[in-house]
Sequence to fold (313 residues):
Amino acid sequence: MNNHVEEKPVTNIKRRDNHEGPKYHFITYAVSMVLTFLAFIAVLNETLNKNFVVFLILAMAVVQVVLQLAYWMHMKDRGHFYAITGLIVGTFVMFTCVIMAVYWVWW
Amino acid sequence: MSHASHEGENKIMHQPEKATLEGRNKVLGFWLFLGGETVLFGTLFATFIALRGESNGVLAKDLFDMTLVAIATFILLTSSLTSVLATQALHRGNAKQMINWLIVTVILGFSFLGLEIYEFYHYVHLGHTFSSSPFGSSFYALVGFHGAHVALGVAWITILIVQGMRKGITTYTAPKFYVAGLYWHFIDVVWVFIFTVVYLMGEVGF
Fold:
């Protein structure tokens, strides 16, 4: 009985830790390439609105980075609570720095 | 009982970097280091964003060679893929394949560095130097610091390749390969923001 209950998480770990093969890594690579390519196209196209282009390329950068963090750096896998917390805190400090520096110099 | 031994076996086979407490601590410690690196690059990005308008005549739009930047981006993105393939070989326990992918990663890293050195050399000849303007100072500090990270990563992974050839994949060496892979991905992640904020936004003239 007891044994049976305990074995459940093991099969769970097996399912998530046994790697599915490189499929998702190649998909991440393809998506990153496409987003990078689109960012270059958007910038070299002079007819688009500047604010829109900047918003678009920043959004595409964030999407690309989230994909790479989740798949290439395995953040989607179990046991990454502290990793995620660490990066979120780092990102928070980063945004504070950017806003402060810009505010300091220009207002 | 069977639970513990099963899990242990599973970890050694599929995630050797997390098979020992030391290994798990190394991975966790490395993530905290990456959190600190985020702050470090955050301050450099903040400085660049605040000062990039002060350029003394040399404009980002006229300066940057977008073809070169596109090639560099392609190289670094590909090297991030080869480094994840190395980590996959690590999880399969295939030392030979892992080392081959790491060698490809190092070669791509060197190509990126070569391009960056050429790029800096080219800009200096156009009058864009570290001390020519606040734009120059913050540009070289940010992009140069990223380049220094690439150089460190190339040296580190080269040493790991030698160790991998001598010792193979063990519960002692596995965390090193895994953590080096994380470092290399992080370099690519930072580059995604550098090419977006520094080069593309510079080209747009935002």
